[in-house]
Write a structure and sequence with these properties.
Blueprint lengths: L5 H8 L6 E9 L7 E9 L4 H9 L35 E2 L23 E5 L19 E8 L9 E3 L4 E3 L2 E6 L2 E3 L3 E8 L8 E2 L1 E5 L11 H11 L7 E5 L10 H7 L4 H18 L2 E2 L6 E6 L1 H12 L6 E5 L20 H6 L9 E7 L16 H14 L3 E7 L7 H15 L14
Parallel strand pairs: 3-4, 4-18, 11-14, 12-13, 12-15, 15-16, 16-17, 17-18
Antiparallel strand pairs: 1-2, 1-5, 5-10, 6-9, 7-8, 10-13
Length: 439
């Protein structure tokens, strides 16, 4: 589906730690899953054209003695299906339901209104949103990529673990994990809309778990933004897709970045990522928190809210899919002993409302006790139900989507709902509307 120059990637990986790749993307075909790309790739300051072309044709020999494969982790048990009227569930509005329809059966392909707060149910059947398609008459934005080396970071030099941790017998709310330094390279992928005016401060959205490899951008969000911006359903915003530092959960770099209940990750992005985006991509990013959004799935979702919660002076708009509002923080912090579970147990209920607008989703078969922790704080459905309840009680603008027949960060759900989620979360922000045509 994507351009995959393995040999070129091998050479690129040996180049300088910060690299810029500019993509000028012309697209043909319609369904996102069958897109063919006409791509022009320019690598700034890396390789002469002849050497780059040679790299594409080179054969890459396999190592003589490949390292032994890492044992696959045991399969997770299948999560139970939680009923829409189960414990803690809010009274859902079944989207598009008509009299006589089966119970808890939403209209296929229909999303909640983009101008309405509240609790909604979708599914069990899903249809990819038409905004995922490429429309020839719609102006296409451009993509640029560069990489960051952990050796240059003052915030995250890189950690990892060999094996998953064990429950701390002195504190069952945390794990004992043995970690060690693990350097990494982080790919940053930047979408710049066609409508961006150079030199002007643009609104933007940060997305977590961005594409990991140079030369292999994910085009679903750019396609959606092209269509929404052209129809004036969202502002002409820049999307900054940030790859994680590697691994998952406690003891990993990704877990340290995403699951830590503090302002550190937002501070890392503010100090180290955004200046490079402006420098390398020749754009200006707004300082207005109302023009800044964050988005992610799973721990990337809780990280999105963590950024806005600890730095509301920087971010006001948040989208989360299967948000990890559970106890996954490591190392243990006695100020937030339940990790992100504290959002709905203490932080939101006991704090004055913050200027945060939150769209959140969970699947009826979402994660349930996926690891060795058994502390009563590892049910993703319960956690998201509780989030919706406290947000409503405190008067937040929120839209909560319960997806039936859906798992953790279910791709079908995201493909149907992403345009509506973006339109809802940007509601109230000024749109660039062309002036009326003079008679």
């Amino acid at each position: 589906m994507y351009w995959q120059p393995e040999a070129a990637n091998s050479l690129l990986a040996e180049s300088q730690s910060r690299r810029i790749v500019r993509w000028h993307v012309g697209l043909s075909s319609y369904p996102m899953r069958f897109i063919s790309l006409r791509v022009t790739l320019s690598v700034v300051g890396l390789l002469p054209a002849a050497l780059f072309n040679f790299a594409l044709a080179a054969d890459v020999a396999a190592p003589a003695n490949p390292p032994p494969a890492t044992p696959a982790p045991p399969a997770r048990p299948t999560p139970p299906t939680r009923q829409p009227d189960g414990p803690g569930a809010p009274p859902f509005i079944v989207v598009g339901a008509k009299p006589g329809d089966p119970a808890w059966h939403a209209a296929t392909g229909i999303n909640p209104p983009a101008d309405t707060d509240g609790d909604f149910l979708i599914g069990p059947d899903y249809v990819p949103a038409p905004e995922l398609n490429v429309i020839e008459s719609v102006p296409q934005g451009t993509l640029q990529q560069f990489s960051m080396d952990s050796a240059d970071s003052k915030f995250y030099p890189g950690i990892g673990r060999e094996v998953f941790g064990t429950v701390d017998p002195a504190n069952p709310q945390t794990l004992i994990v043995k970690t060690h330094p693990v350097p990494y390279k982080r790919t940053i992928t930047v979408y710049i809309p066609h409508q961006y005016v150079p030199g002007t401060a643009a609104p933007f959205i940060i997305t977590h778990d961005g594409p990991k490899e140079m030369g292999k951008p994910d085009l679903s969000l750019p396609h959606v933004l092209d269509n929404l911006i052209a129809r004036h359903r969202v502002p002409a915003l820049i999307a900054i897709m940030i790859a994680n530092g590697g691994g998952d959960a406690q003891g990993s770099e990704r877990g340290l970045e995403y699951d830590t209940m503090s302002g550190k990750f937002a501070e890392f992005i503010q100090a180290e990522v955004l200046p490079l985006v402006e420098k390398n991509c020749h754009v200006v990013l707004t300082q207005d928190p109302d023009g800044r959004a964050t988005m992610g799935g799973s721990s990337g979702g809780s990280a999105a809210l963590i950024m806005a919660w600890y730095h509301p002076e920087w971010y006001h708009r948040v989208i989360t899919y299967s948000g990890t509002y559970v106890n996954q923080q490591w190392p243990f912090n006695p100020e937030t002993p339940g990790g992100a579970w504290e959002f709905h147990r203490k932080l939101i209920p006991e704090s004055a409302p913050k200027p945060i607008r939150l769209w959140l989703e969970v699947g009826d078969r979402d994660n349930y006790n996926p690891n060795v922790m058994r502390d009563g704080m590892h049910d993703w459905v319960e956690a998201n139900h509780r989030m919706a309840a406290v947000l409503k009680a405190k008067g937040y603008h929120y839209q909560y989507v319960f997806a039936t027949n859906a798992g953790h960060t279910d791709r079908r759900v995201r493909e149907q709902t992403l345009p509506e989620a973006l339109e809802w979360v940007w509601r109230g922000y000024p749109l660039m509307v062309p002036p009326p045509v003079k008679p």
